[in-house]
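Possible regression after last week's pipeline update?

I re-ran a chain I had predicted before the update to compare outputs. Posting the input and the new output here so someone can diff against the archived version. Not blocking, just want to make sure nothing changed silently.
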Amino acid sequence: MALRGRGDFQQRQTPTVGASDLFVPPRSVTYCCGSCGYALNLSSTDRHMTNIGSKYRKSIKKGIVSFISVDESRFSQVEELRCRPYFKSRHDWGLLRRRTKLFCRNCRNFIGVGYEEGIPSPDVASGDGKKYDIMIRALQPSSSK
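New output (post-update):
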């Protein structure tokens, strides 16, 4: 800030900030395993953005970030069939749910789960309807080289 003198007192001159100065383009972040640092090829651009709303705060409190696609070659996978009630919406539920547990291919640390979402979301380009819930504490941002 520049100071301008006027008589016995000085007046502060504040810099003007335009709307273009406030816009910061989103930066893509890639993630690696939080335990061993193995590159998981998870990108923030592949985040499942339809849950950014009323449910977003709940998922963050649970420590979960959702992705619409992952590089499955970077994970060890274990198929699981769970037999317990689950709810997609108020009137849509089921008893059996097939899901895939994802582990770091390098250190075998549990990273998250993948499952069929049922209703493909409009932001899923591939249309396979899969959703991946990844634990925040199992990730760390990759260092840029």
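Follow-up from reviewer: compared with the archived run. Strands lie at 2-6, 9-13, 30-33, 39-43, 64-67, 75-89, 92-104, 110-116, 130-135, 139-141. Marking as no regression found.
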